[in-house]
Amino acid sequence: MSIAVNADKAPEAAIRAPGLLPSVRTARIDAWFDERRVLAWTALSVLFAAVAMVVVVPAASGDGGLSPVDELWYVDAVDKASRGELVNTGDKIDSYARQVQACRGVIGYQAPLPTCGEPQPDDSIALTAVSAADIHPPTYFFLAAVAGKVIRLTGVTDDLLIGARLAGVLWLTLGLLAMVMLGRAWGAGWVVPALAAVCAGTSPLLVSTSGYLSPDALGLLVGASVLLAVSWWQKGRLPTWLLLVAAVAPAYFKVTFVLAPLIGAFLVLVAGVCGQLPWRRVMTGAAILVGGAGAGALSWQLVRGALAVADPVLHADAQDPVAFASFAKYFGYYLETIPATSDAPIPLPGLLYVAILPFSWLLLTAALGGTLVRGTKDPLLPVCWSAVTGMALGSIVMSLIVLVATGGFLIGTPRYGIALLPLFAVPLMCLRHRVVVLGLVLSACGALLSHLVAW
Amino acid sequence: MIRFVVAAVAALLLSACSEPVLVPEAGPNAPGFSYRPAPRSPAPPRVELLSDRPRTSAAAAGAIDSVVRQKDVFEISGWALLARKKPRGVLRVVLPPDVEASVVDVRSVERPDVAAATSDDANQWAGFTVTIEGDLPREAGVCVLSRSSQGTFRLGGSDEGLCPA
After folding, report:
1. A100 in contact with B, Cβ within 8 Å
2. Averaged over B88-102, what is the pLDDT?
């Protein structure tokens, strides 16, 4: 059985709240673009590329230090990848990254050192200069190295760090396009998904992940792609073996991205409970998504162990005691992934936090409201339940995965929920009310303006 | 289409031949950056061990940061106002009268924090670590006096019973 979602009959018809009128103008623009899809995707690509440049270029090319979110290890991993080398467990940080840290410093933690240019001894570097980038699969580092090399070939810059950081424009543009594609797969139009994507792309968290080197830069793209695969599979448009590929692949970008196939499995289960999918298909889909995610994460750990040249270095902050309270405090933690915060002292314009607030509220309201008012036959009900569950329990599930995989207890950070952000936005993208459009326009314009003024 | 490709290739070639637009302010690839050898540490100060309490007092400058006691050996670390070049000066370590000791090792330690705090690059290598063979009782203190071209000083953290403030 497949579920047909008709974009022309927007799912917002299920919500009839007094005073919330659909925006007729938005519907007309959506209809106009529906007849010119190539133009629509081209326009969105240009818009998102421009937004991504506004967000990424100032951070990537600024004079400030390395990002405190482990960018020292990541720049070393990209440096090694550009020479065709992997970071094996126990590898030391090479000279380039040591010099970058000494000469630029680390935002919020270390000022530039007077010893810039001189050899940097091991004991002047965190973890005695042993790289911790081995914990991540090398996919992002090789992609950033290749994209950075192409950027350097154009002559924009001749610096490895700036070139690799500028590749964030590409990752963010693709991530936003995938987000819109996901929204449209669930029946959204063009205007609201575009506005929602601009809000998501300009939010503080995305600056800290896309403007600096971080495997999280691929979070939007990977998360949206996996959930898009789930949506297509539900509608019978994707063969089951490709769903398995979509379930295994996220672990090979970053282990925290396995949350995407896991929430996909939850979505399929809720669709079964609502009677929207036959149980046999539900069990097949859920088993493939959970099993694939587990197999991906497990196989990466085996590969990592095989490549090790020394014992792994444990993060000092990975030693939280395993107790009920340790998990309970992460309830609702991924609410913060929605735009409000950046979990590092990255310099950001203060107005940005205010500008992005309407987007946060709309995102949460659309998901929560959808669980309350949508009927069991509405294909968006499972999406709303999955979004709310992801916001509430995502961090707890992530901690459980790390506990099982490593025996340690991970400090939760909203950043780890980035692969779920496209799903969180789907209930909002499928609305077309005036209030929604107005709120998104305010957020998007305010966020873009604050970035431009700071630039 | 062909025109677009030709224009794109020409634009790429032109931009690749021009100066980079985004240049880092610091670090490798920044203008003026060069790899330098690590600076050699200057000669350490001379160290004298005293067991008699000095009669004259001295102004306070410098500090004893730590006295680490191990079996039959102890290590004094800190900083003092010493000369930049050899002869750098003398560190007089006053020990309790009943402690028999001899100097095993003296090392200069880089202290950019002292140079920054005193706004004087001459103090970049003001740090020292003195390793002394001997048994220093747990309750006993030490006193360190520094004498150099910068003057004579009593280091902070010195035991007042061993040298007058």
Report:
1. yes
2. 91
